[in-house]
Sequence to fold (273 residues):
Amino acid sequence: MKSVGIIGIGRVGGLVAYNLLAKGYNVKAYDVVENYAQGQIMDLKHAFAFADVTVDFTKVEEMRDCSLIIITAGFPRTTSETRADLFGRNRKIIEEIMAKLGDYDGPVITITNPVDAINTIVAKKFGREKSFGFGNTIDSARLIKVTGGASDFVMGEHGENFVPILSNKNYDRDEIVNRVKADNLFVIENKKGTEYGPAYHIAELAEAILSGRDFNTFVSVVCEGEFGAEGISMGVPIRIKNGKLDKILECHLDEWEKKRFQESVESTKKILG
Fold:
């Protein structure tokens, strides 16, 4: 059975571990807050005591044989710091993790924010074909709950300048953006953070990658000129095949969408410095 390494097993990481164990994958987990991580792992061991799966606390260096690595480790953004400030703090953590992973050669799903900037760094080590920044999938789920449009999705950064791509262009798109942001803020204000939504979609993405099947999704990958983005990771529609990026899918953008996507690009460039 394939093993998944989860680096950062807090609220979201713990639920991702739960979902993957329920799907039959073994999990190796690490968190810098070791006592909390050990508690999470013991709780998961009890949950799956009668299942043919394992979950263990390991060092990051011991995850090199995993089939997939999921990185959720990092600081949350405080009210007093910019996204660039957060990138500065979390980049150090990610670089330490990448060094410890050494010659690991499998796919990586990055959750750490600001995810587009962080995934740009991750892809330099692990390659653009195997480095996926998670964000647009949950953004798209939030969008669909607002619009009801099953084919609607989100491109661009996982942040202020996300780009809603709507099947019905008659909507006031600025209003749609504000409603999606408000729904996310509602969760944060009432329960201090999102967990079930991201965890579910992260586990679904992980399973699809591990299966080796062909599928289309919306994640952040390093662009090579697509949609005007060059050398940075941006949320775009892609096809994954055999656990790797197969290609970025073409999508017509109108002028409003092009402008907003470019704002995403410039925002991430500014963060990267």
In short: The radius of gyration is 18 Å. The longest helix spans residues 83-101. Residues 57 and 221 are 29 Å apart (CA to CA).
